[in-house]
Every structure is written in C-alpha cells, then in structure tokens.
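Question (not urgent): is this output format expected?
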Amino acid sequence: MSNVLKALKREKVGSRTARKERASGRIPVTLSMDKQELPLNLTIDEHEFMNARRRHEHVYELEFDGQTEMALVTELQWDVFGEHLNHVEFRRVIKGQKTEAEVEIAFVGMPKGGLLNHLVTHVTIRAIPSLIPESLEVDVDGLEPGAAIHASDLKLPEDVELEIEADTLIANIQAPRGEEEAAPAEGEAAAEGEAEGGETPDEGEAPTASE
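Got this back:
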C-alpha cells in the first residue's frame, strides 16, 4: 500500500527558500508529471516522510490543492555528510499500470576464497508501482574465484520484469591479490630459457673467431 503525504505547493524556489523550508521541518520536493507538463515544486513534512522510509516505502500518494497523485521516489539528495535530507525527486505513476524503476542489488553471503567485485549496483525493472521491490537479492555465498553473476541470475519477484540484457555482467569473484599472477605458460618459460642461454648458431655455420 502507498502512504499518504500532505504536500504544499512552493510559490518560490531557490536555495534560500529551500533552507527556510528545511529549517521549519519540511522537505522541498519535485514531482515530475507527463513529458508535456512542467514538474511541480512542493514540500512535505520531513518527520512523516522519514517514518515511511523506515518502513521501506517508495510509493506515496501526494495530496495537494484538492488532488491526489501517486508518486514514486526516484532520487534522494542528502547533505555532504549524508545526515540530512535536502530534496526528494518524485515521478508520477498510475495505479495498476507498469512503470520503470531503478532498484538496488543486495549481495548476500560471502564468496569462498575470493573477493566480490561489484560492477553494477542498481538495475532497471518494470512493474506495477505497488509491486516494485526495495532491492533484488543475489546469493554469492560459497562462490569461488572466477565465478560471474549476470542479470539472468537475479531473483525477480512475480510480475517484475528486468529491463536490461540478461547477459549483463553484474559482479564477479576475483582471486585475492597475490594469487592473480598465474605461473608463466610453457611457451613463455621456453622463450625465457632461450633468452637466458643466448642465441645458438645456425646449423652448419661455424662460430666466428674474435679478432
């Protein structure tokens, strides 16, 4: 279910006005509408929004000026220390109609004898707003060096579609540093041996005497 947030329209925008809003306990937000419509500048109560986020909510009903819009959180902007929320980006969605959203990848477990190398941290999915997951889990427990995780390995909830190629590389397991340099191949070893022993004269050619 979505949460209802009482929103107020912002008559003025700018950093000074935004600071005043935050000082009064309200967060400046932007609601993106259809492509042909300009985004709406609103504010919401910080306490109400943060309580909903603790419940991992990401779809809300914004009520303002006698209308209600279902909205999906698309971006949270924090201060430089990551302690205070400065701004929220919303995008209007339609109830029961699938929409695209970016969700985080959650890696679960510990690899065996290797290091997890993240190549992708978020993926785009398509789902009904109320069914958009908070994250997608990937089990890496016991994977050994050389193992690779692709988008096709992601566990998708029912009615959730992946919007990236199935063969997209998400992560891999790398050998610990120091074990990555393999021993030289046989051909390389032979070449090194020849270099150390010097060149041998061609068959039938006598060595040249020094003057």
